[in-house]
Every structure is written in C-alpha cells, then in structure tokens.
Write the structure tokens for this entry.
Amino acid sequence: MKRTITRLACGMALILLSACGRDAPDALGTLERDRITLPAPAAERIVAIDVREGQPVKAGERVMQLEPDRTGARLDALQAQVRQAGEALAELEAGPRSEAIDQARAQLAAARAQAADAQAYYARVEPLGQRQLVSAAEVDRARAAAGNAGAQVRAAQAALLELEHGTRAERLAQGRAAEAAASAEATAQRVTLEKLSLVAPRDAIVESLPYKLGDQAPPGAPLAVLLVGDAPHARVYVPEPVRAGVHVGQRARVRVEGVDAAFEGRVRMIRSEPSFTPYYALTGEDAARLSYLAEIALEGDAARGLPVGLPVQVEFVGDVP
C-alpha cells in the first residue's frame, strides 16, 4: 500500500514538473538600449580621445577631436572666394566709372571727326572721278574710307550707350548667384570643420570606440557608438503562434536573467515582417518557426541601471487597454 502511494506521489510530481516545463515564456531576447553613431565627417587623423568605453557623457561634451588643419585651410580658401565674388558683384552693382564714360564720349567725338574728314574727301574726289581727273581706284578708296569712318562712329555710339545704361540685370543676377554659391560652399566647409570636434548630441553612455588615437577613418565610418535613453528595453523575437495576440501598447512582464523581480513594460514596436526564414519558403508545421522582432519598454526606475546584453524572458499580459 505504501509503495502504491509512493508511486502515485512520484507520478503526480512528474506531471506537475512536466506542466511547469511547458509553461514557457512567450518570447525570448536580450536587454538593449537605443544606439546612436557618431560618424567620421572627413578622412582626418584622430588627435584626441576624451572619453573611454562605458563612460557617461553629457549632451555637448566632446568625445574626440580630428585633425583640423587641412579642413581649416580649405575653409580659408573658400572664404577668400566669397570675398572675391562679393567684390565682383559690388563692381557690377556700381556700374561703369564716370572716367570710362568720358573716355567713350571722347572716342565718339574722334570717330565723328574722322568720319567728317573721310566724307569730305570722298565728296571732293567723286566729281573728279566722274570727269576722269582721278583714277577710279582712288574714288573707291575714298568711298570705303568714308563708309568705314561711319561704321566707327556707330560703334563708338553703341559703346557709349552701353556704359550710360549701366550693368545688365542678367549680369547682376549672375554675380549674386556666384556670390551665393561661394558662400554656401564656405558654410558647408565651416560645418565640416566644426564636426571635426565630435560631441555627444544627448546624454549617453559610450558603448564602443572602434578607432584608436592616431587612426584615420574613412568618411562615414563610426567613430563612436553611444547608448541613449533613460532605461533599457527588451528586444525579443515573438514566435508565430503568439504574434496574432501581440499589439503595440500591450502590457508585458519582463524577467531579466540574474534579477529576481519581474519588470512591467509595454510593447512599443513589433515588426510586421518575419525574421530569419522567409514566409514563402515555409509550409505546414514549419510556419511555427517564424518570429517577429518586438521591443518592450520597461517601466519603473529600477530598470534604469540594468546593463545591456542580459537575456530576458517576456510574458505578454492581456490586450491593448
């Protein structure tokens, strides 16, 4: 009788243990924080690193400094081009000098005098040519000289009118555009020079510094990776059978490896596309292998000091309130 009772007790214990084993969490993942990257604005050598990995930094605090000499020289050259374009525009806006206008008037007067002399000579030679007192060639030369002198008068008149009318509106527009383009290039170079001093855009913790002092990273390479946000979040993969009951805003209970107490949280994001295996390559029971990336924001001040990377287990509670 005692053996029978003992066997029944062991069987019940095994059943209970089996039931507990089947009570698995809805999703597994790790504890993470939002990350921001400070990229290299230019291919310059790192001359100073002011922080270390794991160090908290305040917004605006310098993280590292890149060599500014070449970028600063380029900025000086562009600023000189801006001044040159500005002076050229000022010259166009001022228009021709009064001395240039006086010179054009004098040239017009000289051209008129030459034209009058050439016309008078032709007037004297033409009757003589008709009476064959001078050669026809001489008459032709006099006629050509008179016509050329008249053309010189018209050219001098046009040059004087051009000066008196001032600079064309189209040339002024071109001058303003050239100055604006030079100024924009100088501004862009100034921004690049300022970015050579990398600062934290917000309060953060330095996660990693991929490059060391003296390295020269290519443009766009991550020089520093920062962890931001007041508290970490759980980044988990939701299995396909559970996905239909999980929504943004839904309450969840998060258990962190090594921490006795569970944390309350809410789903802040869940992907609509599955991870890993594409859905069109699965059939039948293989569909259960689908998983969807989700993030659960932890609530409460107790979660603020938790380190990233710890394994977590998430149980979704209820539905969206």
